[in-house]
User: Which sequence fits this backbone?
């Protein structure tokens, strides 16, 4: 049985389905008569008969309202009369004149209307529906119980007669030990939630009491609703990461995640046999992060006394969508010595398609080739491409062309190779081959070392090595 509630003053306001289990000695019956304000209403075939409750003998017809369906049950509520017509739906009559009901609405529903009832001042309609579903071979096979193997026929033996006790029902017999062990082996894992987010790890509300141990793997999942057609919706689990337990207490555990792995608060967690998802070669892309890079390269001149500095500066933003925008001041340099000063700079804005394992972009800007030569600023264009993950193994190339003295001229080409060293901690090594060669090593790098010399990308927080 299904029930539909009639809402509001409009008889067509039908909404909200509910299921009611009626616990009674037999099927419920709906009264075919309803006495109201001195009038009694009854169903006779395709008519609603109005009788006076006291003024006339019982059963004496006063008037009737003809319907276009055969009524099965009726209910008077408020100023309306509701008639159930089975597969033909329901009919609503107005009792503005109680002695002469008037049909104001009729509506078919998704099933046979067999009665009504009132709950919390609202009218609910009782429906009877017939449903059918296809029966696949897989469903049939799952319902067939395996036949027990025939035991070999043994030679007849003489068994002493013993008194037989009361017969024990099959349902009360103990299950075989093997079957019990199989059920225990397939028991579902305990499921918990993420209760705290940390830098590279999370805390879950599962611990030793749930069977977790150090170095166990834990999978994190989120649930989402998937439409299956029509009004059917199913719940689907999507695994977002698999980490390793590092610290465990009776009721909580800390789980280490991989580079750039994100797990939302309150995500589901359970012990798993899936492989760990962390990767130092191709970690996932992280969107919604700012990027700031700075490189300072001071130097002294050879021969005449002098000094100078080459500087690279960059600031950008990586959107949740695969888009990157930024501004570059790379390079800006000056040198002073022997009474002369030389300044050269290249400033550009860039936009790029930024995918997890590939990036290509274009930029425009201005360049001052050499102020000591008295030249004007030149228009510059930048093409960039990256192959590989931003925070993993990748090769990145920047190429610059300039429009100077009314002709295109080659500006510069810069290449970067980033080699990951360790997923966490360890050493971060940077080596640069060029006119000003340097090498350095730091313990427990706070940021991933990338870009030209020792520029830091603060959103990564993982060490790596860069070779130019």
Assistant:
């Amino acid at each position: 049985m299904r029930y539909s509630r009639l809402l509001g003053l409009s008889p067509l306001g039908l909404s909200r389905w509910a299921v009611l289990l009626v616990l009674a000695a037999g099927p419920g019956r709906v009264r075919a008569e309803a006495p109201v304000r001195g009038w009694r209403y009854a169903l006779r075939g395709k008519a609603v008969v109005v009788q006076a409750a006291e003024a006339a003998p019982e059963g004496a017809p006063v008037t009737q309202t003809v319907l276009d369906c055969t009524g099965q049950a009726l209910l008077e509520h408020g100023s309306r009369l509701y008639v159930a017509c089975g597969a033909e739906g329901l009919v609503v009559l107005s009792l503005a004149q109680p002695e002469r009901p008037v049909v104001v609405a009729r509506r078919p529903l998704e099933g046979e209307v067999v009665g009504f009832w009132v709950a919390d001042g609202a009218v609910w309609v009782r429906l009877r529906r017939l449903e059918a579903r296809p029966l696949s071979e897989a469903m049939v096979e799952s319902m067939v119980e395996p036949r027990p193997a025939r035991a070999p026929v043994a030679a007849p033996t003489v068994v002493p007669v013993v008194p037989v006790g009361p017969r024990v029902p099959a349902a009360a017999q103990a299950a075989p030990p093997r079957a019990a062990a199989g059920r225990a082996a397939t028991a579902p894992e305990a499921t918990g939630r993420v209760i705290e987010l940390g830098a590279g790890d999370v805390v879950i509300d599962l611990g030793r009491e749930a069977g977790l141990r150090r170095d166990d793997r834990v999978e994190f999942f989120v649930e989402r609703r998937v439409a299956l057609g029509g009004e059917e919706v199913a719940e689907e689990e999507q695994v977002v990461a698999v980490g390793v337990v590092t610290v465990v207490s009776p009721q909580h555990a800390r789980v280490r995640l991989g580079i750039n792995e994100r797990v939302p608060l309150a995500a589901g967690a359970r012990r798993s046999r899936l492989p760990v998802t962390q990767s130092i070669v191709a970690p996932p892309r992280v969107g919604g992060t700012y990027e700031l890079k700075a490189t300072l390269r001071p130097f002294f001149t050879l021969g005449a006394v002098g000094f100078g500095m080459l500087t690279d500066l960059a600031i950008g933003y990586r959107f949740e969508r695969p888009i990157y925008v930024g501004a570059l001041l790379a390079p800006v340099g000056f040198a002073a010595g022997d009474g002369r000063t030389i300044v050269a700079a290249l400033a550009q804005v860039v936009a790029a398609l930024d995918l997890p394992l590939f990036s290509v972009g274009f930029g425009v800007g201005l360049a001052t080739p050499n102020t000591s030569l008295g030249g004007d600023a030149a228009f510059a264009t930048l093409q960039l491409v990256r192959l590989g993950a931003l925070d993993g193994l990748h090769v990145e190339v920047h190429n610059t062309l300039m429009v100077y003295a009314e002709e295109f001229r080659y500006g510069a080409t810069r290449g970067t190779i980033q080699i990951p060293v360790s997923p966490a901690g360890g050493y971060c090594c940077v080596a640069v081959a060029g006119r000003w060669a340097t090498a350095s090593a730091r313990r427990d790098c706070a940021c991933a070392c990338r870009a030209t010399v020792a520029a830091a990308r603060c959103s990564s927080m993982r060490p790596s090595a860069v070779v130019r």
